[in-house]
Design a protein that fits this description.
Blueprint lengths: L1 H4 L20 H12 L6 H7 L4 E4 L2 E3 L4 E3 L15 E4 L4 E6 L4 E6 L6 H19 L1
Antiparallel strand pairs: 1-2, 2-3, 3-4, 4-5, 5-6
Length: 135
């Protein structure tokens, strides 16, 4: 990451750069997520390795070697039955998740750590809406 952007992941970018910053938009993140899950960017064995959730980050949020999984039922028992999307969350409440049950890619950017709770409430509402549409 440092070679491409000039700073480490979660680092602060330098003020002066020798080349322009890459700006990722929601469309780019969506294309990236699709590529992660359709075999374009990773082999199936590499993808399976990233999705093996071995550790708990917080209650309801697990991670492996590159992806996270949301387990809504650990947030609140009435959320049992919602799918367990895989993907990642950024520090500024940026979500990039794939719901395999509904074959849905979910990309949201709330642009602020202060919006993390609202971003998760929105993710729950999206998953509930997908479940209603699937009935």
């Amino acid at each position: 990451m440092r070679k491409q952007t000039g700073y480490a992941i979660d680092g602060v970018p330098p003020i002066a750069r020798t080349r322009p910053n890459t700006v990722l938009m929601d469309d780019d993140l969506m294309r990236f997520d699709i590529g992660l899950h359709d075999g374009t960017l990773l082999s199936s064995s590499s993808s399976a390795g990233l999705q093996a959730m071995r550790h708990r980050f917080l209650r309801g949020i697990y991670y492996g070697s590159g992806m996270m999984e949301i387990r809504f039922e650990e947030f609140f028992f009435l959320l049992r039955g919602l799918p367990r999307p895989t993907g990642h969350i950024g520090v500024l409440a940026t979500h990039v998740f794939y719901d395999a049950v509904h074959d849905a890619h979910i990309v949201m950017n709330f642009h602020s750590t202060r919006e993390m709770r609202r971003s998760f409430r929105t993710l729950i509402e999206i998953e509930r809406g997908l479940a209603r549409l699937a009935r």
